[in-house]
Amino acid sequence: MNKLNFLIKLYYPVNGLFNKVLPKTRLFISIHNHLLSLIDSKRHSLILNKAHKEIELLLKSKHRKLTLVWDCLTSPVTYGDFVDFCFFARYLKSAGYEINFYITIDEFRLDWHYTYPDENIRARFLNELKDVGKFILDETFIKICNFEDIDFHSNSYVPFQKEILSRSDFHVAKFAVVMTEIMQIKYPTKNFFMRAQDCINPIDRSDYVSWHIRGSSINSSSEDEQPLDIIAYYKIITLITNLPIVIVSSRGALPFLKKILGDMDNLIFSKDRFDDYLSDAKLIMSSKIYIQCGWGGTFTLPVCSDVPFLGPPIERVHAPWEKFKEHVRNDQIRPWAQENQLTFNGLDDFEEKLSKIFKQL
User: Fold this and answer.
1) Tens digits of residue pLDDT in 303-342
2) Which of 192, 219, 239 is the last residue of a domain?
3) Rounded to an integer, what distance in angstroms lies between the CA atom of residue 298 and that of residue 212?
4) Number of domains comprising the chain
């Protein structure tokens, strides 16, 4: 773990040197990219080795009861990473393990305080995580508690126990994703994937497109999708299908998106009807096809399901080190991606692949 943490921290001085000190010549740009690629390659190797080691320890353990911990002191304040961790738990459950799942709230990483300085809003976000976890796992065994309230000495096995007990700043979701990918391919289970037919649709429509758009009316970001791009994607979608389109977004993005798309036909804005992430998750998992063209962890929901999807370029939903995964090199978000679960790169590719998926529906 020390080597991995060192590699993560090494990004900053390398980027600082080449972005702020050295001239932007072709030679230095090439050296910069080469160094970052070396760091990413080594990081991938360390994470892969750690995942294999954890799998080996898990399989050797005689325990069929597992304790999983999402520690807010060491985990990022995002839906996407949490959903990834929940699908790790879902795989283990489908493999026959009994799961105790804890979200600890006695201490928070710095970005939690920055994102949710108001304790009431933070508490609401935590309850939304719990609700989404129950939705993915189809269970009620998720508990929000203080770290000291977890009984680590009970008759159960704790994946990543050393790191969890030390409360070191590491991204458990990234290891969990790699472990899930390895185990589902090597030891596939029947009930791991979520099925659209098992999800309760929160709206009174059976066939629709769900389209996640990242944007903000208040706190703009370089990751926000641009109006001209949004309109271009809308035109392509409506050229290929006349199905209603459910726009999934944050509450803060609603005025921004209505200003761009408010006069368009056949649109339903999820935040006009619901104000929680769980409803968005149900909308996505019940849709005919899910579309996402920009950044965002919401994409972690359909990638472990049978829902057809068309997602953004892989570099928008994967960390740089993940480009060394074999399935990512083959343009697959996950190694089990089906023919109707694709990513695109550019408007022309978007239109071609969206048309291909609809022909298969």
Assistant:
1) 999 999 999 877 777 788 888 899 988 888 899 999 999 9
2) 192
3) 8
4) 3
CATH number of the domain to which 266 belongs: 3.40.50.2000
77 close to 116: Cβ distance less than 8 angstroms: yes
Q: Are residues 46 and 67 in the same domain?
A: no
Could you read off the pLDDT of 178-237 as tens digits, one per residue?
999 999 999 999 899 998 877 777 887 779 999 999 876 555 566 788 899 999 999 999
Q: Give residue for tokens 């999983």.
A: 68
CA atoms within 13 A on the CB side of 25: 6
The tokens for 357 are 């998926």
Please tell me the pTM assigned to this model: 0.91
Tell me the one-letter amino acid at 30: S
Tell me the H-state helices in the chain: 2-16, 26-60, 79-94, 110-115, 119-137, 161-166, 172-186, 227-240, 254-261, 270-273, 277-285, 326-329, 347-360
> Do 137 and 156 belong together in one domain?
yes
| 3-state secondary structure at position 159 | coil
Domain with 325, as residue range(s), is 201-360
Check the CA dihedral 81-86-92-94 and report its sign. Answer: negative
Distance set, CA 192 to CA 70, 141, 200, 303 (Å):
20, 17, 18, 12
Q: Are residues 91 and 227 in the same domain?
A: no
Nearest CA to 49 out of 3, 97, 95, 92 is that of: 3
Please say whether the beta carbons of 271 and 160 come within 8 A: no
Of 60, 83, 108, which residue is a domain's last?
60
* Complete DSSP assignment for 303-318: GGBS--EEE--GGGTS
- Whole-number Å distance between alpha carbons of 11 and 7: 7
pLDDT at 349 over 80: yes
